[in-house]
Write a structure and sequence with these properties.
The chain is of the alpha/beta class. It has 14 helices and 13 strands. Helices cover 42% and strands 17% of the residues.
Length: 350
């Protein structure tokens, strides 16, 4: 099976497993795990922030950030198609009692005007706007990279309005590799950043949350409250550190593969895709006359797994365990599948 369902299916390499097996560990809740400490320092350095926390998941990193930045009843300005809105189980309300103010970004990228138009007046009738959250790259936006200028404009207006800014940078390294803009430059305009090690970076467990000293001090408290404070977590932190040191540059390869797949699919009759929109490792497309769910169900029989969405789209994600040959095979499988169901062919199902 050529698995394009997500970059979360990546498996740890033998070298990564070795680094994990040999990791020096200690009680990380006491701050005594050297591998966790090393990773946290590396992340903080990488992002140009004071400090970072190693956490079990990017969902927890986002939700700790929301908890620290907001109080119950506050509102978060965020793109309507964001991960934190759709895929975190209602956690902003569940854990922080916050309201979501969804804005319609362009493939996830919204503007300072959107922030200005949605910030609440200082009035007891209104929720208090407190946080702006951006997702970079944007998953449902098709792996869209936030242009740095747009991020700075959003952060400028947020600052002027007294709002905090959080980046869900679960795939920030994809944005870095695609744009040539450093992680520091992306982190500089925002107060806090989530990184995820289990997507394209290929580690088995873990995420990080970075920010300034006071923010991280409070986040450390919430980490404990949410049950995210671990013990000999150096074993998994070592995998994350290995990923950060060895798997960032190679993301460029995933981007080439995604573009190749998009170009091949664009040549197919009946597939609606704009390869020019493919900036990183995620592609979305539609199929004329077929739902996304139907498409992926049929494609599986041809040895390729993609994700089907209820809005009719299909998502394919390239990653470390997908080679150029796999991409070509996947494109060919789509070609064969569509040919087999095209009216007038003998293989057409009755
Ligand atoms: C995967 C992902 C998350 C959550 O990551 P987990 O580690 O699975 O909790 C959050 N935001 C984005 C954009 C993601 O892609």
């Amino acid at each position: 099976m050529i698995d394009l369902i997500s970059d979360t299916v990546t498996l740890p390499t033998p070298e990564m497993r070795k680094a994990m097996a040999e990791a020096e560990v200690g009680d990380s809740q006491r701050g005594e795990d050297p591998s966790v400490n090393r990773l946290q320092e590396a992340v903080a350095e990488f992002l140009g922030k004071d400090a970072a926390l190693f956490l079990p998941s990017a969902t927890m990193a986002n939700q700790i950030a929301f908890k620290v930045h907001t109080r119950p009843g506050d509102e978060i300005i965020i793109d309507a198609a964001s991960h934190a809105v759709h895929y975190e189980g209602g956690a902003p309300a569940f854990l922080s009692g916050t309201m979501i103010c969804p804005v319609e970004g362009d493939r996830g990228v919204f503007t300072e005007e959107d922030v200005l138009a949605n910030v609440r007046p200082d009035d007891p009738h209104a929720p208090r706007t407190r946080l702006v959250c951006v997702e970079n790259t944007h998953n449902q936006g098709g792996g869209k990279v936030w242009p740095l200028g747009k991020l700075m404009a959003v952060s400028d207006i947020a600052r002027r309005l007294g709002l905090a800014v959080h980046t869900d940078g679960s795939r920030l390294m994809n944005a870095v590799m695609a744009s040539g803009i450093s992680a520091r430059e992306y982190a500089y305009p925002v107060d806090s950043v989530t990184l995820c090690f289990t997507k394209g970076l290929g580690a088995p467990v873990g995420a990080a949350l970075a920010g300034e000293k006071d923010f991280i001090k409070e986040a450390r408290r919430v980490q404990q409250v949410f049950g995210g404070a671990m013990r000999q977590a150096g074993i998994i932190a070592a995998g994350a550190l290995y990923a950060l040191e060895h798997h960032v540059e190679r993301l460029a390869e995933d981007h080439v593969h995604a573009r190749l797949l998009a170009n091949r699919l664009a040549d197919e009759e009946g597939i609606d895709i704009d390869p020019a929109e493919v900036e990183t490792n995620i592609i979305y497309f539609r199929i004329n006359g077929m739902t996304g769910l139907d498409f992926v169900g049929r494609l599986k029989e041809y040895g390729v797994r993609m994700g089907g969405y209820r809005d009719g789209r299909v998502r394919a994600v390239t990653h470390m365990n997908i080679s150029r040959a796999d991409v070509l095979k996947a494109a060919h499988a789509v070609y064969e599948m569509l040919a087999d169901i095209r009216p007038g062919t003998s293989a057409q199902p009755s």
